[in-house]
């Protein structure tokens, strides 16, 4: 019987190669097992070689990319100043009203800046400056423009553009989705000069020192607090953090029970972290009502710590839509009844208060709020809340301001009285490492002092260990003055659940048991 040549069905291999492989049939119609075995071995060898080749190619590509990045960082660098001037011709994305645009700028995805939100404008004027040191000359600036949307959890995308850091004034087309170029134009100027200190870290933020104050009317409503400062958070972008702290970070304290409950690996810790993440997002949400500013002098710093208004009238952020219709109506009634002059008699005086802070490992920002802020009652750790559950920070603790006679004859709130104008005395910042969650190394306190000195111009800074007796006395004097002379309630000095308080976790959609677990409760079966 003559042999017939047969075609074995197509064999598809992971490397997308197709083989049509002939085989010789054995008498009786059977196939030669030896031939099939050899074929399988050949195919396996081909696949193995292909995979090895792909692995080598991927490795080579990674090596080339790594080498290019290294060459870029070792190449010539400049100090860059970018002035974001304005945009024009932005599209109207909202059905009602104009856009509330802001932008996010990045240099090589290594350092970024977020602008202020400009309300109801299709031709926003920013005139915001951004300085970055030691930027490779081959770097690229990428900018995204967004529309702050108070009705959805995500902001609307307007468009983007990119450009080199070559010096000059530029007017750039904003490219919308699907390469549409009808999204307006953006004007900016770039100045460059040779790096003043090439030994410093690359992409080093150099100012100006910007801050934002985040008001949350929903938090005020839920905590039943009428003092806007007690449901406010601040974020300040510090300069030279890598210069001072270099590669030193503070990891969460593995020996601290509250930290263990947050950063553990079990389902309870996962639920707690979900609650903290949601709380952080609410407290630091960007909205059209946020306060923004630049720190250039001691006077700018001092304004941050003035008492301010007692009621939240006029502070209407993106949180209001989270209230029920009934709650919104009640809040509007409160707004309508509030007198325009209803502010603390100490609104423009430095408030005797203690603040909880962290210095973020993610963006080198100083984040803080009053230690007595009522929203802390719902969370296991004040510092973890500010850090958004980051496993490490640059540093953390508490700080407060205190007055000092210009002739150094006295120092502290215990020797101060309100007949003295705030400008008639000098002011000190006492900052410490009082954080159980991260338990910062006290050996880094001199480094901390240097950094705060650099960023708080015109103020004297003392960095003290949390066990320092002088620090404890100063904190007590600050709180005593607040109680005895400024009308501050005792329950506002530490997190305290007000009558009528509602958990922040409820409107965030987090399970109700989380707060109970955070405070050390036993998880119900």
UniProtKB/TrEMBL annotation:
Protein origin, superkingdom: Eukaryota
Q: Which Pfam families match?
A: C2
Q: Which residues, if any, are the signal sequence?
A: 1-25
Entry's InterPro entries? C2_dom, C2_domain_sf
Task: Write down what this protein is called.
Answer: C2 domain-containing protein
| Sections of the chain in a coiled coil | none
Keywords carried by this UniProt record: Signal
Q: Which SUPFAM superfamilies match?
A: C2 domain (Calcium/lipid-binding domain, CaLB)
Domain C2 positions: 60-178
Tell me the Gene Ontology biological-process terms attached to this UniProt entry. Answer: positive regulation of gene expression
Which SMART domains does the UniProt record give?
Answer: C2
- Among its keywords, does the record have Signal? yes
Origin species, per record, is Lentinula detonsa
């Amino acid at each position: 019987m003559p042999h017939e040549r047969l075609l074995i069905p197509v064999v598809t291999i992971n490397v997308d190669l197709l083989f049509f492989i002939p085989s010789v049939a054995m008498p009786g119609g059977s196939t030669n097992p030896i031939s099939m075995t050899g074929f399988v071995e050949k195919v396996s060898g081909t696949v193995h070689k292909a995979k090895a080749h792909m692995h080598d190619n991927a490795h080579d590509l990674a090596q080339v990319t790594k080498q290019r990045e290294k060459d870029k960082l070792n190449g010539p660098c400049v100090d860059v100043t970018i002035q974001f001037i304005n945009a024009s011709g932005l599209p109207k994305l909202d059905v009602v009203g104009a856009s509330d645009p802001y932008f996010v700028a990045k240099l090589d995805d290594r350092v970024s800046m977020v602008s202020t939100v400009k309300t109801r404008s299709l031709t926003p004027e920013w005139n915001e400056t951004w300085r970055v040191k030691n930027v490779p000359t081959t770097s690229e600036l990428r900018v995204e423009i967004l529309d702050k949307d108070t009705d959805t959890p995500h902001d609307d995308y307007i468009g983007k553009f990119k450009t080199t850091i070559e010096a000059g004034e530029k007017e750039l087309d904003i490219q919308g989705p699907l390469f549409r170029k009808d999204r307006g134009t953006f004007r900016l100027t770039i100045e460059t000069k040779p790096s003043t200190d090439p030994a410093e870290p690359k992409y080093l933020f150099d100012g100006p020192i910007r801050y934002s104050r985040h008001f949350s009317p929903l938090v005020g409503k839920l905590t039943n607090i009428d003092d806007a400062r007690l449901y406010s958070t601040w974020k300040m972008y510090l300069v030279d953090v890598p210069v001072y702290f270099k590669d030193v970070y503070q990891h969460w304290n593995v020996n601290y029970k509250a930290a263990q409950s947050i950063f553990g690996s079990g389902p309870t810790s996962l639920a707690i972290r979900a609650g903290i993440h949601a709380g952080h997002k609410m407290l630091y949400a960007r909205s059209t009502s946020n306060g923004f500013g630049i720190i250039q002098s001691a006077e700018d710093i001092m304004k941050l710590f003035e008492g301010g208004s007692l009621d939240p009238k006029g502070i209407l952020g993106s949180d209001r839509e989270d209230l029920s219709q009934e709650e919104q109506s009640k809040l509007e009634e409160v707004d309508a009844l509030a007198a325009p002059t209803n502010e603390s008699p100490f609104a423009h005086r430095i408030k005797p208060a203690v603040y909880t802070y962290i210095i973020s490992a993610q963006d080198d920002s100083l984040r803080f709020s009053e230690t007595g802020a009522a929203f802390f009652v719902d969370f296991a750790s004040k510092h973890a809340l500010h850090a958004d559950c980051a496993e490490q920070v640059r540093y953390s603790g508490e700080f407060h301001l205190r007055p000092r006679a210009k002739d150094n004859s006295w120092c502290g709130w215990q020797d101060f009285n309100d007949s003295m104008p705030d400008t008639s005395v000098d002011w000190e910042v006492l900052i410490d490492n009082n954080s159980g969650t991260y338990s910062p190394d006290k050996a880094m306190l001199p480094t901390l002092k240097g950094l705060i000195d650099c960023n708080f111009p015109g103020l004297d800074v003392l960095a003290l260990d949390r066990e320092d007796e002088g620090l404890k006395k100063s904190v007590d004097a600050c709180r005593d003055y607040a109680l005895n002379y400024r009308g501050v309630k005792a329950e506002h000095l530490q997190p305290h659940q007000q009558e009528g308080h509602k958990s922040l976790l409820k409107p965030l959609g987090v399970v109700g048991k989380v707060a109970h677990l955070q405070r050390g409760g036993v998880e119900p079966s």
